[in-house]
Write a structure and sequence with these properties.
21% helix, alpha/beta, globular, 5-stranded mixed β-barrel
């Protein structure tokens, strides 16, 4: 037994992309893969009813369509097949079916508990968990780069505010076994507006960034994985200026900037402990996405896609909208 100096070595990508229907998971995965290799070296394991072939115009990638039952063994065999055929990047679209689909782990566990273990769910899990572990092992030990998409669901909780029970949106959660994100090098959550943010990033390339995935994203990842000596420390992708995820206690008047035009990408209500509502907003100007806050909660009523002019202050890395005006209203959702 001996300790040795740590040394980073070349590695294979293990990337997860989670989002709701229409968020662009498949498209983003294909674009990232295209930045890592040639199109003919990309293999897609498709359990989304052939949706992967909708983007065939992008390049000559290959598709293997999985049908029911979506057993982990099917996924493992598909991964092994892609490895044998010499592909360099495998896209699993989506990994959620191996968990919740017909024939997936939850389906198998439920049937085993009812028929074999007389309702004893714990005994059924002892039988089914190793099957899922085998799939995770196949992903982690694959000789190929792997990008796995996962469907997301919205989670809510009930809280008490001012003596009344209200339902609060907690955010998005991947449809997959709890803790699955720990198995990946990078875990991206992608919004309905196709904007990605890394909830986990061991590379440090995307920490605190809001961006649209594209081929250059894959190029940056490949350089990091190959331990490139000329790898830059900052990704060449649209970046939000560093902004604290803390609602400012004071909205300062310093550093007032001239009015600028921005497009609203997304809005979210945030409530401080005293019950005051603030708006958390992602704005777009050119190719740059900017995270900003506003104490004017009525800005939440402006439709996504609208163009506005805004005066912002900047203090301690936090962008605060002091004044705004609508230039062109977006279409209501």
């Amino acid at each position: 037994m001996e300790f040795k100096p740590a040394q980073r070595k070349r590695a294979k990508l293990r990337l997860a992309i989670a989002g709701t229907s229409g968020s662009g998971k498949s498209y983003s995965a294909l674009l990232i893969a295209s930045g890592m290799t040639t199109w003919n070296k990309i293999a897609v394991i498709d359990s989304e009813n052939g949706s992967a072939e909708l983007y065939a115009h992008l390049g000559d990638y290959s598709v293997l369509t999985l049908g029911t039952p979506y057993t982990p063994e099917k996924y493992i065999e598909a991964i092994k097949t892609a490895e044998r055929q010499g592909f360099e990047v495998i896209i699993i679209d989506s990994l959620s079916h191996a968990w919740t689909g017909e024939g997936g782990i939850l389906d198998q566990q439920g049937k085993a508990a009812d028929s074999k273990y007389k309702g004893n769910s714990w005994a059924a899990w002892r039988e089914c968990t190793p099957k899922h572990n085998a799939l995770v092992h196949a992903i982690l030990k694959s000789s190929c780069h792997i990008i796995a998409t996962m469907r997301s669901k919205t989670e809510y909780t009930q809280v008490t505010e001012n003596g009344k029970s209200v339902v609060k949106k907690l955010g998005m959660a991947p449809i997959q076994r709890d803790g699955m994100e720990y198995e990946f090098t990078i875990f991206l959550d992608i919004s309905a507006e196709h904007i990605a943010i890394a909830s986990k990033d061991r590379t440090g390339l995307f920490d605190g960034q809001y961006f649209k995935p594209h081929a250059e994203t894959g190029e940056k990842l490949l350089a990091w994985l190959n331990c490139s000596t000329n790898q830059t420390t900052q990704p060449v992708i649209p970046v939000i200026p560093q902004a604290a995820e803390i609602i400012p206690d004071v909205f300062p008047e310093d550093n007032l900037e001239p009015s600028n035009a921005y497009r609203i990408i997304s809005t979210e209500a945030k409530t401080k402990g005293n019950g005051q509502v603030f708006a958390k907003i992602v704005l777009q100007q050119g190719d740059t996405h900017i995270l900003a806050w506003s104490a004017q909660a009525e800005i939440l009523d402006i439709s996504v896609g609208s163009l506005i002019t805004a005066k912002m202050t900047a203090k301690q890395g936090t962008n605060v909208i002091e004044e705004y005006a609508i230039i062109k209203a977006g279409e209501a959702a």
